Amino acid sequence: MKYDCILLAGGSGERMGLEYNKVLYPVKGKKELFRYSLDFFIKDQECEKIILVSNHTDMEYFWDHILDKKVKIVEGGHTRSDSVRSGLALVDNEYVLIHDSARPMLYKEDIKKLLDEAIKNGGATLANRVYNTVSQVDEKENIKDYLDRDKLASIITPQAFYSPMLKACYAKYRDQSFSDDTHLFRMNGRSVKVVFSDNLSIKATKQSDLKMLEAILK
Ligand code: CTP
Ligand code: MG
């Protein structure tokens, strides 16, 4: 199934504490973090267009360093939702996949399952099962209650959507911001299928994630 990909790289990486956007971090001193997912989607024949969303400052860097014709670079916005909205304007495929470039580990079999579910359902997200015991805590940080692990999913990206539906959601909730697009999709009365994956996905958020990624990535 053919699709367009919105690759989000327009944050600032505040929690990482670098002096620049974390997705530009050179892994092992060489390959920038965003390039792992960019290369994955460049190689995937079914991906017809990659819309890389950048912040204002990094636009020039991406222009200078990405040469592939399949990639369009657009300026994002203040929040992640603003950035998705900017990217969505360039989507013309029926199906769109949205991915955080801060997550460099991707697997073709997961993408295939996600798109299959988006075709059946309108929207689908990748997720990991939760293996730790998860509890609610009270205001004094004592355990209050336990959540049933079998009913939990840890939501990650990519997420896949039937583009016209997602565009309609963004048009309806013009000024609101969401942590991810499944939230917005559900607010519009749509269901989102959870595709569980056993593959490892680490999001570069804090320094310790970078250390782990540096040890794992080639
Ligand atoms: N992102 C984006 N535009 C924004 C904010 C985030 O494109 N306005 C992207 C980031 O580049 C990242 C992904 O969305 O690939 C997930 O966001 P997050 O991990 O929170 O990255 P940052 O917002 O950059 O980090 P922080 O929240 O620590 O500042
Ligand atoms: Mg953020």
3D architecture notes:
By secondary structure, the protein is α/β, with parallel strands linked by helices. It contains seven helices and eleven strands. The strands form three sheets. A seven-stranded mixed β-sheet has the order 5-4-1-6-10-7-11, sandwiched between helices. The chain has a two-stranded antiparallel ribbon with strand order 2-3. Helix 5 packs across helix 6. The longest helix has 14 residues, at 108-121. The model has no long low-confidence stretch (mean pLDDT 97). The protein binds cytidine-5'-triphosphate (CTP) and magnesium ion (MG). Residues 8-15, 23, 53, 76-80, 82-83, 100-102, 203, 205 line the site of cytidine-5'-triphosphate.
Largest sheet: 7 strands, mixed
Instruction: Characterize the overall form.
Output: globular
Q: Helix proportion of residues, in percent?
A: 25-40%
What is the count of helical runs? 7
Ligands (ions, cofactors included)? cytidine-5'-triphosphate, magnesium ion
Taking all residues together, what is the mean pLDDT?
97
Q: Please provide the ordered H/E string of secondary-structure elements.
A: EEEHEHEHEHEEEEHHEH
Question: Pairing-aware structural class of the strands and helices?
Answer: alpha/beta
The proportion of strand residues reads 25-35%
Q: How many runs of DSSP E, i.e. beta strands?
A: 11
Give me the Rg, rounded: 17 Å
Major beta sheet, strand line-up:
5-4-1-6-10-7-11
List low-pLDDT spans.
none
N/C terminus separation: 28 Å
